[in-house]
Amino acid sequence: MNVLLSYVILIVAIYILAILFRDRLKIDIYGPVLMRRTQKMRGWIDFIANLSPKFWRWSMNIGIPIAILGMIFMVYTIIMSLMIMIQSYMVQTSSAPAAALLLPGVDVPGSPVFIPIVSGIIALVLLMVVHEFGHGILARAEGVKIKSIGVILAAILPGAFVELDEEDVEKAKKSARLRIYAAGSIFNIALAGLAFVVVLILSSSFIPYAFQENGVTITSITHNGPAEGVLKEGMVVTNINGFQVNSRTDYTDLIMNKTKPGDKLTFVTDQGTYTITSTGQPHNASITYPGTRSETHLMVKPEVSSKYGEILPWFLYYLSDVGYWVFALNLMVALFNLLPFKPLDGGIIFEELLGYKLSKEWVDKIVSSVTAVMISIVAFLIIYSIVPGIISMVT
């Protein structure tokens, strides 16, 4: 809750400063939307684009069908998620929620995802920069001018943008526009792929060599959860209800398969033994919920510590952690951005594809209808998955 409150305070402070110093800071205000444009960085984009315009165009010729496949996959995914969620609600099964709040450091009860604040912020910054540079690089490779580059805050959602020259965009061929619109998500997917390789190398070779498992570390305590006021962040758990806990896998298996909501859970930790009474998750009362997040507690092996010290192993471990979140967030956001509704890139790509065969009138009708349906489904998934957890945090 403290982190969520900090976000709220930070956003309110940004809005106050933007209003008070809008002229000095050169900030444009459109209702709840703040924008700051700059002419900087355009030289870098031009330089990268001009290294090989043909390479960028041909690489994005491959990127367009990947984007279309991603769009189809995401439509299928959210429809299946909706069906599973409805089934979960009707029969109270243990299906996981389909949506999560991607705010680093904010632990929403019942959410399947918790993003560490440092790794998450690094990953989100890289995500936005790479996405917008992707659009910009392909625009310049296609001869489309960039009017400005900037950052945006829409209510609580931060972002970045590359503002293209509208006349140049209109003059460009449909294929060129498709390459430009697909570039953001494809660049994110490419970055996710690179991060995955780094994580795979470190997690399959160095980390098993350098570290040994020794219980689980409690990384956060959910506000108003069963563990609040009893357990603390940083505690190392080695036993729960008489079952040995060596890793995060042991912990998850124990909570999910050997307990039920309402059971007392006795945690043996490095700071003593504590007992809590579990509840059900906010989105599904049939799933045991202790109100904790945890990760496998690792120790540098003595032989590794004597040879390399402690700093290098932990540096590579945290590099792997950052790499994992760069991979996960870039892939998740890139695919979500390919959903066929405007103003997402997927909606614009969908509109361009329909324009090959249909009149503008029919394109507008189809795109607006699909947009309404997709937004309704996504909104329902978000409300069902996240809102109960947020309510439990503030009540």
Concise overview:
The protein is of the alpha+beta class.
- Total DSSP helices: 12
Give the radius of gyration: 24 Å
Estimate the mean pLDDT confidence. 85
Give a quick account of the main beta sheet: strands, pairing sense, barrel closure.
Answer: 6 strands, antiparallel
Please state roughly what percent of the residues sit in beta strands, choosing from under 5%, 5-15%, 15-25%, 25-35%, 35-45% or over 45%: 15-25%
Task: Record the SSE blueprint.
Layout: H1 2-20, H2 22-25, E1 27-30, E2 33-38, H3 42-51, H4 53-91, H5 117-141, E3 146-154, E4 157-164, H6 166-171, H7 174-210, E5 211-221, E6 236-240, E7 243-244, H8 248-257, E8 264-269, E9 272-277, E10 279-281, E11 284-289, E12 292-300, H9 302-308, H10 311-337, H11 345-354, H12 360-394
Antiparallel strand pairs: 1-2, 2-3, 3-4, 5-6, 5-12, 6-7, 6-8, 8-9, 10-11
Helix pairs in contact: 3-5, 4-5, 4-7, 4-12, 5-7, 5-10, 7-10, 7-11, 11-12
How would you portray this structure in words?
Helices cover 58% and strands 19% of the residues. The strands form three sheets. Strands 5, 6, 7, 8, 9 and 12 form a six-stranded antiparallel sheet that branches. Strands 1-2-3-4 form a four-stranded antiparallel sheet. With 395 residues, the protein is of the alpha+beta class.
Descriptors for this entry?
single chain; 395 residues; alpha+beta; 4-stranded antiparallel β-sheet; 12 strands
